[in-house]
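Human: My hope is that you can spare some time for a protein that puzzles me. I am handing you a single protein, as its sequence and its fold in token form. Could you go through the record with me and say what the backbone is doing? Take your time, and here it is.
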Amino acid sequence: MTLKRILVCAGIVPCLVISAAAMLRPRVVPGGYILERDSEVQSTEAGPHSGGGKTTAYSFFKRAPGLTLVFRKRALTPGSGIGYHLQTEDEIYYVLSGRGAMTIDGKTFDVGPGDAILTRPGSSHGLKQVGSEDLVILINYEQAPQK
């Protein structure tokens, strides 16, 4: 085999392999957006983690492929709650309105509008609505990508 043939083959074969691999990857188009409204995603549910009572859950973007961020809003009616449970990932609660009693690792404290609470893996926590007004919160955490 001549040097010229070796150089041509050495250049072409890797290019073909790289091109074939690129064709097998899913094509990702940059940009775009998804708009969802409360009325489109709301559902009535019992308080999660056996928290009791009635809540309105807003699970935004739960069908977005590849999204690892969970973004939820939840309205807890009087007497409802999120049951005490072990946390397996970082999770953020943000209080939009109403009052609540949050318990983390056995310590209970009041939460209200403007409060943000980060719960860390290995901790346990629960949240109860208190007062006459719904407790409305945003909840964010990461999960495995949706397919």
